[in-house]
Structures are given as C-alpha cells and as structure tokens.
Amino acid sequence: MTDPFAFLADLLVVRLLGLDMAQSLGGALHFFIEDTAKIFTLLALIVFVIGLFRSMMSPERVRKLIGGRRRIVAYPAAVGLGAVTPFCSCSSIPLFIGFLEAGIPLGVTMAFLIASPMINEIAVVILATSIGLQFAVIYVVTGLSVGLIGGLLIDGMKLERYVEDYVWKIRMGESALPDHPESWAERAAYAWGEVKSILKRLWLYVFIGIGIGAFLHGYVPQEFFTQYASVGNPFAVPLAVLIGIPLYGSATSVIPVAEALLAKGVPVGTVLALMMSIAALSLPEIIMLKQVIKTKLIAIFVGILAVAFIIVGYGFNFIFS
After folding, report:
1. What is the CA radius of gyration of the chain?
2. pLDDT tens-digit profile of 13-55?
3. How many Å apart are CA 311 and CA 2, to the nearest integer?
4. Distances in Å between the alpha carbon of 187 and those of 58, 88, 176, 194, 287?
5. CA–CA separation, 294 and 49 (whole Å)
C-alpha cells in the first residue's frame, strides 16, 4: 500500500516541481513535505482521541490516584500517569504545589514531573509511525525508568528543605481546579479545543523541527556524522545532552530531527540522549520550577537527569554497536 504522505511529497516535488530527490534540494524538500503532512495529520487525530481521555483525567483526579498510596505503588503510578497525562510546562507549578499539598512525597512528585514532558503519548505514536515501533518502545521504557530512578534518588536525598517555604503554606481547594466535561458532546468539544490549543502551541516548533530534519537529510553529508557523532566519538553523547538543554521543544517537534539523524547513521543512544534532554531539561521548564524549588534542588534535578541521559546514551550505543 502506497504511503499517502510519501505519495503527496512525490507528487509535489518530483512531478510538479521536477526536482531530483537524489539532489540536496529535492531530498530536503521531499523530507519536509512528507513529514509535515504526516506529523500534522497524526497530531490532529491523536490529540483529539487523547483529548477525550484527558477530559476524564483532571489534575485533581491524578492527585487522588497517586496520593495516599505506599511508595511501592505511588512511584509506578506517578511515572505511568506522567506518561499518559502530559501537562505542559505552564502546569508544573500548580501541579507541584497540588501534589505536595495532597501529601504526595517530593520524590513521587518529581518522578511525575520528569515523566510527564518526556513521554508524550502523542509523540510516541508519531515516533512509532515515523521511525519504528522498536525505537518508540525503547524511548518509552527508558523514559519511565529515568522518571522512576530520578524520583527515588531525590526522595532518598531528603531534599524537602529545598522547596520554597511558601509552597508548604499554600492550600489548594477544589475551586482552584478547572471543571471537566461530563457528557460525550462536551468531551468531544473539549477534545477539539485541545486539538486547536496544542496545534497553536506546537506548530512553530514542529515546523522548526521538520526544517532542521530536512536540512540534515538533504544538505549535511553522511561523513560529517560518521566523524563527529559516531560511537567512536566519546564526547558525542554528553554533547547531545548539552545541545538539548537550551533548546525548547516537545518530544513531538524533535521527532523529525531524530528521524534525520538516525537516517544519517547517528547511533540510537546519542539520538535518545538528545530527545530526552530537549523534552525534560528545557530552560523554560527549569525557569518555571525555579519559582517553587530552590537553586540547589534545581541543580540536583538537572544533574540527575543529565547523568541519566548520558548513561542511557552510552548504554544503548554499546548495545546496538
């Protein structure tokens, strides 16, 4: 069966414009058109379906599912819910405060906040269709593991004293939480609103990601990646993590970049390290969290994740070498 997105790109690039896909411009433009059509179509469809689910999963319900449980249950629940409830970075402060107010331990709260931006269920589906199911599974399992281990480490260090004092004094009532729709008509309207909201928020970053991926695909020679980003370069993985920190983007927007890098022969571990760094260590997220936790805890949080991503990168590069 012909891939409709590839067919559209062939139609526009080869038949209409008469470009050669073997040339840099033709290859880059074909990549851009195919991935743009694929990602935005899948994004709209998946966000709508997930929006229906989210209409039944408010922050208050998440708090109730995690709160009051033993740690052996709370940690898996936190990373699991983080994976299927990817609240945006602007939600990090009320979620953080609400979780602690509900009696949820700091480590469990941090495990949720690590997993939530890193494992975006929308991105996972697009990742599976664009790059492959195996890579998507590796990404999810690794992200869940990092969230679980990161939360446990923070819990074990007893870092509650590095939470801003005012956080412990805030009492979040039910009135602070948004109403969620009950009927299916209301849920469908809510899901469509999610589609418009997320597309409005992500479209520029997705375009930028696709543009970078198209440039890498069409214009950067294979030899460049063989020399600088191969398993033979011991600094490739830490460099990927450092590059990812200042970049702001969701896991969805970095998929085209990952796709192009893998196609150029960049090792799986290096690509994973870059994706996770962009998703979970972005500067906007850190700036938001700085309002509720002190500098030392921010440094520990960033350090744990950076080290985890580097270990993941080296580990998977070794396994798949």
Report:
1. 21
2. 888 888 887 788 888 888 888 888 887 887 788 778 767 766 6
3. 39
4. 12, 20, 21, 10, 33
5. 38
pTM: 0.70
Instruction: Identify whether the C-beta of residue 257 lies closer than 8 Å to the C-beta of residue 290.
Output: no
Q: How far apart are CA 119 and CA 187, in angstroms?
A: 23
CB 267 within 8 A of CB 231: yes
Half-sphere exposure of 243 toward its Cβ, with a 13 Å CA cutoff?
A: 15
* 249 close to 207: Cβ distance less than 8 angstroms: no
Residue 210, token pair as written in the block: 């696709």
Phi/psi of residue 34, nearest 5 degrees: -60, -45
Closest of 180, 192, 200, 197 to residue 49, by C-alpha: 192
Q: How far is CA 75 from CA 68, 110, 153, 161, in A?
A: 12, 10, 12, 21
Q: What is the per-residue DSSP string for 148-196?
A: HHHHHHHHHTT-GGGB-HHHHH----GGGSPP---SHHHHHHHHHHHHH
pLDDT tens digits for 173-228? Answer: 433 434 555 677 777 887 788 788 777 876 787 788 788 878 877 787 767 666 66
